[in-house]
Amino acid sequence: MANLDFPTAKTFTYTPSTVTRAERSLCCSPFTIGLFAAMREQSVSINAIALEHGVKHGYTQRPVSELTCYNALDWLIQVGVLRREVDGQGITDGFRLTPLGHQLIEKYQGQNWPAPSWRDYLYNAGIQWFRLPF
User: Fold this and answer.
1) CA geometry: angle 41, 46, 50, nearest 5 deg
2) Which of 3, 4, 29, 75 has the fewest C-beta atoms lying within 10 Å of its C-beta?
3) By 3-state DSSP, what share of the chain in percent is helix, strand and coil, each rounded to 5?
4) Residues 6+ apart with CB under 8 A from 124
5) Virtual CA dihedral for 25, 16, 104, 22, nearest 10 degrees?
6) Domain limits at 58?
7) Are 49 and 35 in contact, with CB atoms under 8 Å apart?
8) Dist. CA 83–CA 86, nearest whole Å
9) How far apart are CA 20 and CA 53, in angstroms?
10) β-strands 82-87, 12-14: how paired?
11) What's the structural domain count of the chain?
């Protein structure tokens, strides 16, 4: 099992299947590692990621529609890599990394994602498509 240890946080232990699923989801997402590196420091809003803004900030390779962006971010939340930012008024349009997300971004710091195979894309799409709502 992979461990995560921050000086101010508890140690989290994840099963290998959880880490593998999260890595596959990150690699198959339309986002670059630059987006997640930015999320390590601050919340990033969906408006900064979608359309041409994402390309300009280095968060995506090509423009991604807001709906596609939202669906991809929502999947990364369900996998356990991201969380929605919350302020005093409720949920905002910003996203941040979870401890699992921090662990994976540290692993790939200064590198690009590994290129996913067609099998990875199909497996990720299958899990995403057939997931149960509970």
Assistant:
1) 115
2) 3
3) 50, 20, 30
4) 24, 25, 28, 116
5) 10
6) 28-112
7) yes
8) 9
9) 30
10) unpaired
11) 1
**Tokens found for residue 8:** 């101010």
Residue 11: name the closest of 99, 129, 77 by CA: 99
Using DSSP, state whether 89 is helix, strand or coil: coil
Asked whether residue 134 is assigned to any structural domain, the reply reads: no
Indicate whether 134 pLDDT > 50.
no
- Digit-coded pLDDT (tens) for 71-103: 999 999 999 999 998 887 877 889 999 999 999
Q: Choose among 37, 54, 32: nearest CA to 45.
A: 54
Tokens coding 54 = 């994402």
Q: Tell me the pTM.
A: 0.85
Rounded average pLDDT over 53-75: 95
Q: Give the integer Cα–Cα distance in Å for 119 and 134.
A: 26
Q: Is 117 a member of any domain?
A: no
* pLDDT at residue number 40: 92
For residue 80, give the CATH number of its domain. Answer: 1.10.10.10
What are the strands of the beta sheet with 82-87, ordered from one edge?
A: 44-45, 90-97, 82-87
